[in-house]
Amino acid sequence: MHLIPDTWSHFHMLVSVFPLVGLIFVLGFYVTAIATNNEPAKRICLLALGLLGVIAIPTYMSGDSSIAELMKNAPVTQDPGTPDRVFYHSGWGYAALVLLVATGIAAFVNLYRFPKGKHLSQNAIHLVLGLSLATLFFMMIVGELGWVIGHR
Q1: What local confidence, expressed as pLDDT, does residue 6 receive?
Q2: Is 2 among the domain residues?
Q3: What DSSP line would sit under 9-43, residue for residue?
Q4: Most buried residue, 46, 62, 117, 137, by most Cβ within 10 Å?
């Protein structure tokens, strides 16, 4: 078992787990904080969502590098469906990245606009929740498309 990635593809697989799994956990805590009207927990979740937006950047960079590396691999390029799967994965990945970064920006803006002591706006809370759910949906599609690439 290789714990230290030796190629961009391995690094991409390792680093891409954090935004998806982190989003699932943070979204669970965020929904619970909204349901219980727990203001400090909402703020912590907003901070975590903002950090997930930042973590998406290494995933994007490693993905671009792994595409170039993957297309140089002769057995991969001989399979006629692999280039299409790679580009579907990267296209959906770009959309998920944009949504995750938008979620992170919205979370940071909400923290900035409503400092400690002021209650968070319900519209802002629901905006971040909606963006998070859309991001989760897109990331699940990206993960499935990436799984197909890696397990053929």
Answers
A1: 64
A2: no
A3: HHHHHHHTHHHHHHHHHHHHHHHHHHHHT-HHHHH
A4: 46
